[in-house]
Amino acid sequence: MLEHPIVLWLLLFAPAAAIPGLMAARAGRPLSGYAVAALRVGIFAALVMVLAGLRIPVRTPARKLTLVVALDASRSIAPDQFEWMRRRVAALGRSMSPRDRLAVLEFGRESRVVAPPADPRLARVPADRAAADLGGTDIAAALTTALSLFPADAERRILLLSDGNETRGRAAAQISAMTDNGVRIFALPPPPSSSGRVAMVDLEAPNPVRAHSSFALRLDIQSENPSPIAARVGLLADSGSIGHRDVILQPGLNRFVMPFQFDAYGAHLMRAEVGVNPPVAVVNPAVETGISVISPPRILVVSESAPQSLLSALKLRRYDVDLAAPHSLPRAAEAFLDYQAVILADVSADSLPDPVQQALRDYVGQYGGGLIVTGDALRDSKFHSGALEKALPITFVDQPPPPSREPVAIYLCIDRSNSMSYNSRYPAVRDGERIRYAKEAAIELLRQLDDTDYAGVIAFDSEPYVLSHLRPLGEDRDELIRRISRLEPGGGTDFKEALEIAEREILTSGIAAHQVILLTDGDTNRQYHDHDQLMADYANEHIPVSTIRIGPDLENLVLLQDFAKETGGVFYRVDDIRKLPMLLVNLTQQAMDDKGRRATHLEYAGQSSILSGISSTEIPPIGLFAATVPKDGAEVPLRIRQNDKTSPLLAAWQYGLGRSAIFAADTDSSASLGWVRWNRYAEFWSQLASWVMREGDSGPFSLRVVTRDDGALELRAEKADAKPVNGLVCRIAGDGPAMDVAMTQTGRALYAGESAPLPKGRYNVTLMLKEGDTEQVLVRREVAVAGARAEGHDELRLRPPNIDLLNELARGTGGAVGASDRTIVRRTGAAITLYRNSASFLLPLTIAMILGEVFIRRRYLGD
């Protein structure tokens, strides 16, 4: 080892020192000449080595010890834990020999020596932490600083007093440097703090979330208190309180999940705060995160006629629903990208040409779209082997004939008086809508009946008008529908004679399953008791009369209620007249003797995310369904058994990049009324639609925005197809000047960009294509940025000690974790390497060589 290696360049002149000896050798005295040359070169080399500061390594047993104590002074260490460290240093000083040396340094984000190596009895640690920056923990830097404090002639020990939770650097990378320098590391984590600290750790939410959709806020709170404590958690959105929750914090990490929902598109800053009663201390009282709320999913429902129950269920869950006829569908898969899912309700193979079926198949398989097929579409075996079938989890088959049942007799009495044309204040009904909805309801009822069922219709004002006597509906269904559609309001109100006609004709028909439905606003010209005998006759003949009262008026309300009650019918008061069609279908279903159709049994085939939260015991029965055969790989959560045959009622699978499913019942059929009336019907359709629907935004691009800890935005755009695009940028606009971030292609259909750190606030992010002066907007998104995390945020997480890291450091250097003071300070006499200066023996050797060279020259060379 050399102190001045540059001096070695003088060795280039060593041959010059040998010249006199070489000349003597050529003059005829070779032995003496060569001896003189060698001695002169040796003398020159020895003097050069002395000047270069050559030091010789010497292995010798160590006779003393130097211990460097590294104290973790970061904010993650509680005051009582730091006081414990100070006491440990004092105890170590008392247990060490005065010959040994003790040094102390404190570290956080940086390191500082508070006591250089000295007499252990003199070591003192100030009560105030001396680390330059407490907002971080850099154990690696502390080890490097400790290594510089060791003298060369002592055993080297480091005592690391820390929880091991480093937030900067990588301490494990220092192990090789420690072993190369003979340093052994001992580690002691401090005991748990007695102050019972509490800290907010994290607030997480899905990002983005859909408007009107419930999502889970996950809140993590760490408690160091040894026993459970009461706390109050408050939630704020955009600085306004949105509620609080009283919780019990158990020792350790507590995780709470809170459901929440935003009903408007935009961005919000969510903040969670925790409060506890003294003497428990809150280290980090609040956390904040930004949430982007995007518009509800768009769903396209395709049907020949509007499936009211399905549309109502989807709109109840706040989906953005469009209705289209099959013949209007596009023939390009890209045209469906405006929707997250497509539902085919009642379509035929003839109404979906092969190009449209192929487009739907590609929409699912190539673009990740969602597809659901239900209703009459599943009964059309012409779909078999077509493009649509390839995307579905089932195979179409020929349908068995529908099960037979006894005919029913339904007599409908419709109020067409002047009052049916009046409007009302609540709910808002415009002139003429009462009679319009009444006609639509009657027509919908007739469409639900079979041709063999009997139907009679009377329209009444002050007089009855028989539109059709009671007879098989197949004889004049279309004509009866036309007659009903032509009804206009006029005249007074008297339904007594209409009910008398209906009674006579039902008794004459002899049909066992019968029902009379009276549809009126109740404003009759007769008195209550004028109907007593008629009411008694209906009751004696066991003919149920269901009365439907339209609107919020109160006239003759008791009469309609009693008529239904005495005859075994049902009374309904309908405020929202838009519900009339489904209500009449419901009443018709109750009149049907439908044993053949009801001889089915549902089989719950196991857990499925589609039926999450829905128990098998609460799923209603169903009367009529389409028979299909599930494909290999299909998930079949619900099967339906009839006699000895089973068929999927609900089937789903992954097809290419997307998903598809079938529901093998007609959503608006009378046989499905159990499902329509089910209080979880909307939830079922919501979960089914959510399972199949494509993720991301509507349109050819989906945008994902992630906020980093420093406030910068990571922008990720995914294109529905792999065709590359140029000029893709994200414009970020806030209170200051807007910035454009160029999006670089990073994958087959992936593009990425990154913004500079942004201050706290809300921003509009617009994904667009720029070509010259033209800008095409693709996706708009509002985001909320909580700003850069405060310095030292990670120090307030109250994590348990990182024993794994402490063990790695100790075992890698021959130390230990949790060793006693006696073990830490005991000298082992381990061999150490000392570097001694070579001048002490090189100078005497040089003198001896000089004397030898002089002797040879004078004795043998005659000098």
Q: Can you give a write-up of this model?
A:
- This protein has 863 residues and is of the alpha/beta class.
- The protein has six domains: 73 residues; 164 residues, von Willebrand factor, type A domain (Rossmann fold); 97 residues, Immunoglobulins (Immunoglobulin-like); 200 residues, Class I glutamine amidotransferase (GATase) domain (Rossmann fold, 3-Layer(aba) Sandwich), CATH 3.40.50; 183 residues, 3-Layer(aba) Sandwich (Rossmann fold), CATH 3.40.50; 85 residues, Immunoglobulins (Immunoglobulin-like, Sandwich), CATH 2.60.40.
- Helices cover 26% and strands 31% of the residues.
- The protein is built from 21 helices and 40 strands.
- The strands form nine sheets. The protein has an eight-stranded mixed β-sheet with strand order 17-16-18-19-31-30-29-27, sandwiched between helices.
- α2 runs antiparallel to α3, α3 packs antiparallel against α21 and α10 packs parallel to α15.
- The longest helix is centred in the first third of the chain and has 23 residues.
- The chain starts with 13 loop residues before the first helix and ends with a helix.
- 40% of the residues are buried.
- About 2% of the residues have low confidence.
